[in-house]
Design goal:
This protein is mostly beta strands and 278 residues long. The chain has a single domain, classed as Sandwich (Jelly Rolls). Helix content is 6%, strand content 55%. It is built from two helices and 24 strands. The chain has a 16-stranded antiparallel β-sheet that branches. Strand 12 and strand 13 form a beta hairpin. Bound molecules: manganese (II) ion. The site of manganese (II) ion has 6 residues, from strand 4 and strand 9.
Amino acid sequence: MSVARAVKSIVPTHVVTEGGGFKVRRPAAMGSLMSPFLLLDEMGPADYAPGEAIGAPWHPHRGFETVTYMLAGEMEHEDSVGSKGVITPGDVQWMTAGRGIIHSEMPTKKMMDEGGLMHGFQIWVNLPAKDKMMNPRYQDITADQSPTIEKDGVWARVIAGECLGIESSIDTVIPITYVHVKMAPGSTLNKTLGEDLNGMLYVFAGEVSVEGKNVKDGKLALLSNGQRVNIESQSGAEFLILAGPEIGEPIARYGPFVMNTREEILQAIDDYQRGLLA
Ligand code: MN
C-alpha cells in the first residue's frame, strides 16, 4: 500500500533583485528547508523594453550546481573554462560548479536591442561534501532533446527524473526529480515520488490541490513523506515538481559559495581572489 504525500507546509514567495538588477520571485525559505535545493528563483516574467534587459555579469560559484531553464526570452552564457552558448525557451543548462567556475549570464544582444518577454527558472542544487570539489561540468539539453509528454490534460517536460512513464537522460550527481507540468482544468496527475526523497511543488500559475489542500500561484508546497503525490487542478495550473535526497550535512553559505564549514568558505574566497577558480 503506497502512502500519498500531503502538503506539510506552504512557503510564500517574495520578489528580490538579483545580479545586475533583474527581478526574481523566490520562496522565503532557505537551504535546509528546501534541501537538497538551496535556491529556487523564478526569473520574471518581465517584459523588457529595448535596452532594458539585464542579467548577471561575471561571478564565481563553488560547491553546488546551478540549473537554468528558460520559458521565454534568451540568455547568453559564457564561462572561465571556455564554454559559451545561448539558452532559448525549453532549453536547460545544468552547470555543476564543483570546485569552481566563473561565469556570466546575460540576455542575448537581440534581447538587449529589441527587448521582449523574459521568463525562466534558476535552481541551485546542493552537492554532498564528497562532491563539492569535483571538476566543473556542463550539460546543455536543448528543448528538442528534452522529453515531453501529454496525457489526459496533463503536459510535462521531464528535466530530471521521471514523469508519466518518460525519463530524462540527464546525469545528476544526486538523484533529482525536476518536472515542469501544465494541467488543464479538471485534470489529475498521480506521480510516484520515491520515499527517500524530499518533495515539493512550486506553483507559478493557477492553483492545484494535494490531498484537499490548495496551493496557489506563487507558493512553494513542501510535501510530507510518502511514495506518491496525487495532484488535482480544478482551474488549471502550471508548476514545478522538485525532489531530491536529504543531504544532511551542515550548510555554510556566503553569496555564490556553498560549502560545509566557515573555513571552506574563507578558502573559496581566498582561492577566488588568487585567481584559482578559473
Ligand atoms: Mn551564476
